[in-house]
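Write out this protein's structure.
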Amino acid sequence: MRLVLLAFLITETAGVLCDDCEPVAQMSLLQHNIVARRLTASRIGPEANYWSSRGGGPATSSSVSYAAPSNFSGGPSWVWQNEFKEQVRHSPLIDADKNIFVCTTTRLRKFSPNGDLVWTWHTAPHTVMSASPALHDGRIYVLPRYEKTNVPTVVSIGMQSGTVHWNRTYEGLAQSGDAEALKVFNNTIIFGVLTNKLLDGGTDTVTAVSGTDGTLLWQYVTDEVMWNFAPATPGDGSILFAGSCGAVFRISSGGELIWKAGPFNPGHSMCTMAGGALGPNGIFYSQYSEDDSNNNTLAAHNITDGALLWSKQLPYHALQYPAVGHLGATGPLVVAVPMGDTLLPPLPPILSAARLTLNGGALRNMLLVVDAATGQTMWQSEDRPWPHAEAAGELDEHNVTDGAICLPDPQGIPVISGDGTIYTSSSHHGDLRAIRDADGDGIISQSEVSVFKTGKCFLNSPSLAPGMLVAAPCWGPMYVFKD
């Protein structure tokens, strides 16, 4: 009788999977149910700062428990005009007092909540910043690299004064120019470097240094390529991250492999710009393509042992990190999956026209929202088509030091707020959208979307604090919306 009951429970549990998801190992689901009950959001641990690093905080989930402005009709409360026309590659950071830190290629600025410039820090000559900084314990950490050698330097700066506390250069290491991120926790700074000299970019080596003085602690070398490397932690010091072709890793706080799962691609090839995010349910969600084709997938892995819980074939190109969060205080836990067409650098008109012809005359961008437990599709919202091959603002005048182009992903990472609003930022035409399925019918109507048109492409998401939203396109002004 017990065996029959167990078989029934396994069958019923497996039955919750969506029709277009691949089946899951049955025992992995049962095991995960036990693990998920033990793992709560409190393990991840809320940061004192509202937006402390790329993806928002330790889990890199791009979700928060509080609400922010979602009606853009009244315009921003204040604007930083970006008078030097610098490139902003990352989401601004927001501290516990709602001060805003925005990083460009050569400068880091701190603004008060009301828009007063508090201080500016400038990189050393011949160094540039392409990695996202991180706030931690009264410091902001940045990762400049030398332009010719790509040798990285970690700099620790006081958040209050803008004074440098220490800096350390790591000769023999090389940091790529993609939009990776620093992660800081337990007085340890994590960032990526490139060990394989044959690769054109990305990260294949995780590096840990001391938050006290920058002393090199350890390195973990993978046989995969991570693009826009953005690690996550469940709060115990271990680190989760995803490769561009689907491999998922969990390594210990000492840099030792705990498990590796997903499709392996040991040839050090680059598949897509996507990655992964950690949910409060003990599941790591990775978005990837196994090659450079249109085989695009979203996969859910149990963080205890890496077991695959479900996977879903995506209807369009997987070219960014997902977001994981609740749609409101009592709403379902969802995964927001960005998809879209790749942009090109400025090309002669005949080549741009040929690129658009292949895409039916315009580039597409969309957001897919799925149930985090099953992968079941809940709703989808497509942005307006973009009739150009290059991103908005790429042909405008730019600061020479910051490079000629931004060349962003199709859209920034989505952001999920505490009231169930999902924010998207277009890398095509630069529209910032606040989307909420208010009536719960699974169809996003025009009245359920608020749009602010920046006219400049985004490389990364807006940042949120209670009653505040900060959006910084690649080349445009930084817009601050406040309730």
